Each structure stands twice: as structure tokens, then as C-alpha cells.
Amino acid sequence: MTPDLQLITSRLTLRLIHADEAKQLSTMIRRSPSLYPWLDWCHQDFTTSEADDFLLHTRLNWVKNMAYGFGVFTRNTNELIGMAALTDRAFSFNMGTIGYWIQDSHQHRGYAQEATQAVIQFCFHDLKLTRIEFICDPGNLASHQVALACGATNEGLARNRYIFNSQPKDGLVFSVIPSNG
């Protein structure tokens, strides 16, 4: 997939975050403490150097066709407000995992759902995946709501489903399949 790919919705543009936007990313993360309990790489002292590394890994995963991290930008102001991504692609099973987050000052406006639906459509139509999973911390009710709003089915709790701060954690698994599947 070409790195200049953009997904456009009524209010958002989803695209790779450019290297010169690393400072904006680090500032956004520092100003979003609601992310810290759910994303172990986000913290109050997140630096521009950490953002640079994150963006480099995001671009490398994109080029390798392993994951697609999209910055979520408002169409009217081109402000970076979060991310939505195919975070893990499992080729053997023709499926992937989706992740999403919106900075604190832009939450509760439907942006996470709008961006996530765009990534789901990209996964089904462009990548031809046959299953998308959402792996949520059992306590992250906002994330559960986004998954359900995107048409996902709650499939239950999976033990030791993901790693957080180097420790296995249980994850609530939601999934969505193509409407023709």
C-alpha cells in the first residue's frame, strides 16, 4: 500500500502522520491522560524523540504491509486529534486487529467511531480481510462502546490476550466480519 494513501470521511482525513508532525503527536499524548491506563506506551512525559521513534515504526510497518497506523485529522482544520489503525495483521488467518484513540479534548464527538469505521472499510475492501478483532481491556468501557457502535460482536473474555507493561492481561474480544461474510 502506498504511504500517501488517505481515507476520507465526512469530518476526517486519515493518513500517515508525517515526521515533521512528531512534536504535535507528543504534545497531544501528554495532554491526554485518559489514554495512560489503556496504552502502555503513552505517558505524561512522552517526548518528541519517542514520537519520532513511534512514527518511524509506524511507517516501517506500513511498508512491510504488517500494520497501517493512520493519524486522524479534522478535515476543516487539519488538526491531528488521534489515531486509528490496523495494528496487527495475521496473514495466516486473513484477519487483523484494530486500535483507536482520540486525544482528550476531542473525545465524545464520534470521531473514534467515524475513524474506526473508515479503517474497517479499508481492511475489508482494500486488504480483503475476512475478520477484524478489537481487543479491549475489560475496564475500558469507552473502547467497548466504539467497537459496538462499529457493528462488532462481543465474543467474550480471552485470558492473557495481550501484553501491557510487559505483563499478560485478559482482553475482551469483539469482532466484525464483512457484511457478505
TrEMBL record:
Gene3D superfamilies: 3.40.630.30. Pfam families: Acetyltransf_3. Residues 27-170 form the N-acetyltransferase domain. InterPro entries: Acyl_CoA_acyltransferase (IPR016181), GNAT_dom (IPR000182), Ribosomal_N-acetyltransferase (IPR051908). It comes from the Bacteria. GO terms for cellular component: cytoplasm. One of its GO terms (molecular function) is protein-N-terminal-alanine acetyltransferase activity. Keywords: Transferase. PROSITE patterns: GNAT. PANTHER family: RIBOSOMAL-PROTEIN-SERINE ACETYLTRANSFERASE (PTHR43441). This is N-acetyltransferase.
